[in-house]
Specification:
CATH architecture of the largest domain: 3-Layer(aba) Sandwich
Number of domains: 3
Strand order of the largest sheet: 5-6-7
Order of helices and strands: HHEHHEEEHEHEHEHHH
CATH class of the largest domain: Alpha Beta
Distance between the termini: 71 Å
Strand content: 5-15%
CATH topology of the largest domain: Rossmann fold
Shape: elongated
Length: 291
């Protein structure tokens, strides 16, 4: 920086310094070199479609004023996102001795500062003159999630389950997350895979499990788990779900996924309470079961 300042003075040129984001250590350095802050600008742009932003009032996290007890979690969030942690700066903001700063944090359902960075990818599959594997949502943060509608996807027919498993794992491997939860959901038996066999799908899931990723299998109004058994999914990671309980089941699964992601639980398994909420026994009575 001294070289740049000296060069500008030698050429008799004005010198302006623009800093993106707020870093108190940088301001201190700039002041020592003779810079004086004059303007604050906003460099975050959000594109709003003509139809407006979707109504997400029911999915937004709780936001509140931050407290000193949130300092460690705030540092973890920044380190996860950008690889740095400026807890000293945050402490200055939170102490707010000159009453100039307002610092906000978001909480999860348990009332904790949400310090886990997550995203969701959703793909649907069937067989129509070949495998149809359509990615409907890619790396969407939970707060930005929009519900899937009939305009996004319409049920058709056939179940290339093994091909879909292989495609899903391959896509996850390309993204290469540290942790992942692979949720396989089907309403029918494998009947139309052409790209891989049962052994190929099983090998893909073994690669996922070797990385420490979690794999669970849900039957949507479907309780025959022969295919899940065949590709190596454990029975305590399989569950039948009724149409009416799907939303509640997904909420419980999301909570388990967060606990796994934060290292609070080593794996995801379905217990008796999960199965009662999913109305698994009712599905078995209506649809039959291989257990």
């Amino acid at each position: 920086m001294r070289h740049i300042i000296d060069d500008a003075e030698l050429r008799k040129l004005p010198l302006r310094l623009i800093s993106s984001a707020l870093n108190l250590d940088s301001f201190s350095l700039y002041n020592r070199f003779g810079f004086t802050p004059t303007d604050i600008y906003q460099d975050m742009m959000i594109e709003v479609p003509k139809s407006g932003l979707p109504d997400s009032s029911g999915t937004l996290p709780k936001v509140r004023e931050a407290e000193l007890s949130d300092l460690v979690a705030m540092g973890r969030v920044e380190f996860e996102v950008s690889g740095i942690s400026r807890e000293r700066d945050y402490c200055y903001f939170l102490e707010n001795g000159d009453e100039r700063w307002t610092t906000l944090v978001s909480e999860n359902e348990e009332g904790e500062v949400d310090d886990l960075k997550t995203s969701v990818t959703l793909a649907v599959f069937d067989y129509q003159q070949g495998l149809q594997f359509d990615v409907l949502r890619k790396d969407v943060e939970p707060a930005a999630w929009t519900n899937v509608t009939n305009d996004d996807v319409t049920p058709r027919g056939m179940t290339p389950l093994f091909d879909a498993i292989n495609r899903t794992i391959t896509m996850a491997e390309a993204d290469n997350p540290e942790k992942a939860v692979i949720v396989i959901m089907t309403d029918g038996h494998e009947n139309s895979s052409r790209e891989v066999t049962r052994d190929g799908a099983k090998a893909a899931l073994e690669r996922a499990e070797a990385r420490g990723w979690e794999v669970v299998f849900l039957g949507a109004e479907f309780a025959s788990f022969g295919d899940a058994d065949a590709v190596g999914v454990r029975s305590d990671k399989q569950m039948a779900v009724s149409a009416g309980s799907l939303s509640a089941t997904q909420e419980r699964l999301a909570k388990k996924a967060r606990e796994y992601g934060k290292g609070e639980e080593a794996e995801i398994v379905f217990d008796a309470e999960d199965r009662a909420v999913a109305e698994e026994e009712e599905v078995k009575e209506r649809k039959g079961s291989n257990r």
